[in-house]
Please model this.
Amino acid sequence: MKKQQKLHSFIYILILTAFILPGCQDRIYETYELNNPVYLTYDELREAVSDTLPINLEHPGKIYIRGDMLFVNEVRKGIHIIDNSDPASPQVLKFIEIPGNIDLAVKGNVLYADSYIDLVVIDISDLSDINEIGRIEDVFSYSIPPYESQQRVGEIDQSLGVVVGWKTETVTEEISEPFLHSFTVRGWEATTMNNAFYGAKSGGGNNSAGTGGSMARFIIYENILYTIDISTLHFFDVSESTTPWAVGNQSIGWNIETVFIAKDHLFIGAQTGMYIYSLYDPVKPQYISTYWHRTSCDPVVVEGNYAYVTLRTGTLCEQDVNQLDVVDIRDLDNPEKIKSYTMYNPHGLGIDNGILFVCDGEEGLKVYNASDPYNIKANKLAHFPDINAFDVIPIDDLLIMVGKDGIYQYDYTNLENIELLSTLPIFSD
Model:
């Protein structure tokens, strides 16, 4: 009995000690930098589209061409409109302010663009009187701007509006459980579409749509506008271009990045593979197959029997892989890689009549004859190493390229003497 009483006393002392000791310890504090969100209200967002006089290119993103007009996205700010009737002397005409804009497509005289979570419709038939003529609200995923990865993010309250920036503050707080404390990000990871995601090639029908580069998230086929976000394919009927309406969406996977149309199919680039969907019924895309690859950033272009996929490392693409894959797609049910080529850090790419253009990051623009897919690297036609290249549009012997230092245009009529026609420089602080 005494032994049992001693045991009970011992247990009581342990429990009492557990409660007393923490109060005797020194308090522990942590100081860190916190990014608190800066909001634009939804009412402000939906009244913000306006046209202005030309502004400098500072952070160009997607490029898109229709007829003699070149459209260049200023990342998260809006769209530059450029008269490109003379590629040797492009003239910047207007800037359209569109908060949160990353992607665009044009059909006839109507421009479709994202504005954070909304799809906006803009009449560009009269450049002296550009107007928003329609909007579909709350169609895209909520996203936040980039921030320093080493810094924490404050709580995001979506009811307050969209996040347009950050206010950095120094915060000191007491750590209540020092032995259990670990670093956690306050808020959530962004599903942003930043920096290196650009356009794609429209196809099919007599739709008077334009052409973008290889990193598109917006693309028009017949009378359907297809857009992608981090995990979903959305499609809109634009047959009545001034009043588009949403006709459906499909969940595809995760980390979806780019979309390209060829052979009446969608070729969707993701960080883990290339998804193929049939457009036999444009309003009901049907899944066909997937070409799987290592996790990496992944734009895709297609010509003839082959798809060309660049894989690269980057902020969102952590695997150590930088290469060009050539995929045989003669059997769309069973796409098969036939060759890989080591690259430096390939981004966007384009192909025109067997001529392959690869933007290889800091190693610049590389041009290949791809008629023999097993010997592409041995058939290099040109190399422009003094530019940091992101994406290209090859069309009718004219190559339009966006790079770190500006918009470049080349005449490749003579492949033995590809000629630089013009440069629109970037002016940044």
In short: The CA atoms of residues 82 and 214 lie 20 Å apart. Confidence is low (pLDDT under 50) at residues 10-21, 178-207. The chain is about 5% helix and 45% strand.
